[in-house]
Amino acid sequence: MKASTAKENILRKIRQALSTPVPVPFPLSEGTESVFQPKTQDNEIEFAERFTKLQGRFAFCANETELAEQLQILLTARSWQHIYCVEETLKSNLDQSALNISFTNDLPSCEASITSCECLVARTGSIMLSSSSPSGRTTSVYAPVHICIAYTNQLVYDIKDALQLMKEKYGANIPSLITLASGPSRTADIEKTLVVGVHGPKEVFCFLIER
Amino acid sequence: MTDTAASFIAKSTIKAADMEHRRKINFNIAKYNAVVPIGKEQFTDVMLARERAKNAKWRAIENLDKYLEEFEKKISERGAKVIWADTADDALAEIGKICAAKNCTTLVKSKSMVTEEIHLNDFLEKNGIESVETDLGEYIQQLDGEPPYHIVTPAMHKSKEDVAKLFVEKLGVPPGLTPEQLTLVARDKLRTKYTAAQVGVTGANFIIADTGSIAITENEGNARLSCAWPPTHIVVVGIEKMIPSINDLALFWPLLSTYGTGQQVTVYNSIVSGPKQPNEKDGPEEMYVILLNNGRTNLLANAKTREALYCIRCGACLNACPVYKNIGGHSYETTYSGPIGSVITPHLKNMGDYKHLSNASSLCGNCTQVCAVKINLHELLLENRQEAVAQGESSLSERIAWKVWRQSSLNRSMMNIGNGNLKNWVVNKVFKGWTTHRSELHFSQKTFNEMWKEQHNQ
């Protein structure tokens, strides 16, 4: 019963302390209007610009056929032989487009992983991923290269829109992990020198398809 | 003087004269200063953003009991277990129990100041568990056997040459590696640790009441990996990290990134709401959230110092502080250094041993100026000084000195006693405390009062 005692102790101390309330610091600053720069151009363009600035690699595709072509060029150029993808819908789409991909079932040894995403945030150039996808928590972060396939109707302007979308889609059953991923993994822990590619992917590709 | 104060003065005296240290810190902080304005460009009104953030933290803290219970209820429904810990020892004992039950031999840890606060690594080592720091900066510090120097940039005081040398000594890599190569070495060493570890430990930047979640902000991906591969995920978090709603992240994520590193948003901002759910592919089977008090309710109890609990640990006040930049993060000998550390440590630990930190400030107010959530830091330093004296934590000589000062200040004729030479002699030669670190004072020969009388023939 020690655990419940600790809880009671802490809550008692909190309630005792809060019996002296303090007033709201800035009553005139309350409100819901955005404090961020408003949208000035199409979400597609804003996303592409922001994502590229973060060293993300962006490609626009008019349709799935174009996606297959562009993906093929990438795979050939890099001579990737082990692609990890566990999303069946994505896989069968890619298979149908006569792509020559050799898939692997082993995430640790793959050269790149392919996933879908929840949505894209234009203002920050971010990809929102969640564990409700068959790709789960590990696929997009453990592979050395992450390739994300997204559609233009998945674009939102700001983070608050993305969070709202998740609440509407999942209600009380939100995925156990939601990540807002903005470009490749990076660090500046040594002399504040930017190094791209630490524990997460060194490269992130986003193929955005018109829909 | 207490031992802690004596040690602080000794260490800061040495560091302040260390020009190589100052060069490295100035170099790093100059890089930080260059990018923060770029991060701020995303706001139409950054002042309004900070004021709203302070209001949101105010709401969270003023209703902390209700929000903590709401959080516990929501995340428990999703299969996580919430553990309340009143002290560091309670938290360690609970972590020890979990690790024992999981036969844990290797544990991966992402960066977390609260685990530094409870000295988790020492505890795990004593219990025969290998604890691997996975954040690059923390990994460097762990290799060197040093605590983090800065709450956001743990190895800020090391040059790239220092790190290269350390890697040669500890990891046997060839000398002269670049930051890129050093980063790759760490990546390779740690990659297999994630998949081998039985337990992953993370902190949390935010506790979210309305969805029953915790949020973790990072750039490297090590926190994501630490709560993806190991079958057990333990979160250690201070109770003050509360925010009312998941919607608040849309403000707090960009604000924390801007003030922490000058980024628009950090690379990975994750929301964790429980262990792997039944329909999900991977993730930990079990998740524990340890809600730590460890003195935070002391800050809460004083209506004036309460706002120190609004801190989101962006580190901006450290980077802005002239004292921090001269004496460095380690001289404080506290988990939380810089202005915020000086404000909260006397309350988290005890006033007697740490009150000296509140005096190690010129009260320039730069910390308050740059605080992401507008905490009145320099006023809280004054508040601490006042509280220390009220608790009888001042020395006898200090009390006598102030008594004499008060008496003479209230008495015109006493202030006019003696000429400037006599006063100079008293302050500069009799009470040597003044001149130890300062040049001599020079009083005017006559007081203002005397001159006024003379000129007006009174």
Summarize the structure.
Chain B: Residues 301-332 form the 4Fe-4S ferredoxin-type domain. The complex is a heterodimer of chains A (211) and B (458). In chain A, 32% of the residues lie in helices and 22% in strands.
Characteristics:
heterodimer, A: 211 residues, alpha/beta, Rossmann fold, 6-stranded parallel beta sheet, 4-stranded mixed beta sheet, 12 strands, B: 458 residues, 10 strands, 10% strand, globular, NagB/RpiA_transferase-like (chain A), Lactate utilization protein B/C (chain A), FTHF_cligase-like_sf (chain A), LUD_dom (chain A)
Provide a descriptive summary of the structure in words:
The complex is a heterodimer of chains A (211) and B (458). Chain A has helices at 2-18, 43-53, 64-78, 88-96, 139-142, 159-170, and strands at 57-61, 83-84, 103-104, 112-115, 119-121, 126-130, 145-151, 155-156, 177-181, 186-187, 195-196, 203-209. Chain A is of the alpha/beta class. Chain A has a single domain (43-209), classed as Rossmann fold (3-Layer(aba) Sandwich), CATH 3.40.50. In chain A, the strands form three sheets. Chain A has a six-stranded parallel sheet with strand order 1-12-7-4-2-3, sandwiched between helices. Chain A is globular and about 70 Å long. Chain B is an alpha/beta fold. Chain B has helices at 3-16, 19-40, 46-62, 64-77, 88-101, 113-117, 120-126, 136-144, 160-171, 179-196, 222-226, 249-261, 296-301, 316-320, 322-327, 338-348, 351-354, 356-359, 366-370, 377-390, 396-409, 412-415, 420-430, 433-436, 448-455, and strands spanning 81-85, 106-109, 130-133, 199-202, 206-208, 213-218, 232-238, 242-243, 268-272, 286-292. Among the domains of chain B are: 42-294, NagB/RpiA/CoA transferase-like (Rossmann fold, 3-Layer(aba) Sandwich); 397-455, no CATH class. In chain B, a hairpin with a 4-residue loop joins strand 5 (206-208) and strand 6.
